[in-house]
């Protein structure tokens, strides 16, 4: 059995590879395993030992990047979808709704309201 630090390091490495490969093409377990010099089955087993799986990690990375890209601004939804490895904007919209319960546009509006209210609190005389 591995100690907690080495296994969390493993998951972090998988997440990093997934994050770096997203805009090229949707990463697959086989591709990530190959990059880590593992078999696909070993990758799946080690992730299972960590209490997760490849699909969950891919989804988490996409969610985090989607929020970061939205906050960054300057990208349309089609461009954002491609950066996250989706072929269509509608797929991103459905995934975003699953993650947050709202569309990307509504989430962005809410994030901007939150930023504005925080900014107003900071600049109060």
UniProtKB/TrEMBL annotation:
<keyword id="KW-0805">Transcription regulation</keyword>
<dbReference type="Pfam" id="PF12833">
    <property type="entry name" value="HTH_18"/>
</dbReference>
<protein>
    <submittedName>
        <fullName>AraC-type DNA-binding protein</fullName>
    </submittedName>
</protein>
<keyword id="KW-0238">DNA-binding</keyword>
<feature type="domain" description="HTH araC/xylS-type">
    <location>
        <begin position="12"/>
        <end position="110"/>
    </location>
</feature>
<dbReference type="GO" id="GO:0003700">
    <property type="term" value="F:DNA-binding transcription factor activity"/>
</dbReference>
<dbReference type="GO" id="GO:0005829">
    <property type="term" value="C:cytosol"/>
</dbReference>
<keyword id="KW-0804">Transcription</keyword>
<dbReference type="GO" id="GO:0000976">
    <property type="term" value="F:transcription cis-regulatory region binding"/>
</dbReference>
<dbReference type="InterPro" id="IPR018060">
    <property type="entry name" value="HTH_AraC"/>
</dbReference>
<dbReference type="InterPro" id="IPR009057">
    <property type="entry name" value="Homeodomain-like_sf"/>
</dbReference>
């Amino acid at each position: 059995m591995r100690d907690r630090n080495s296994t969390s390091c493993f998951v972090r490495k998988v997440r990093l590879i997934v994050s770096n490969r997203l805009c090229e093409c949707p990463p697959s377990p086989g591709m990530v395993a190959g990059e880590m010099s593992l078999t696909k089955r070993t990758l799946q087993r080690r992730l299972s030992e960590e209490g997760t799986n490849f699909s969950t990690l891919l989804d988490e990375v996409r969610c985090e990047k989607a929020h970061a890209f939205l906050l960054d601004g300057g990208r349309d939804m089609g461009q954002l979808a491609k950066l996250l490895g989706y072929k269509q904007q509608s797929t991103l919209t459905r995934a975003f709704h699953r993650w947050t319960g709202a569309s990307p546009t509504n989430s962005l509006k809410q994030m901007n309201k939150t930023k504005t209210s925080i900014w107003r609190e900071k600049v109060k005389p």
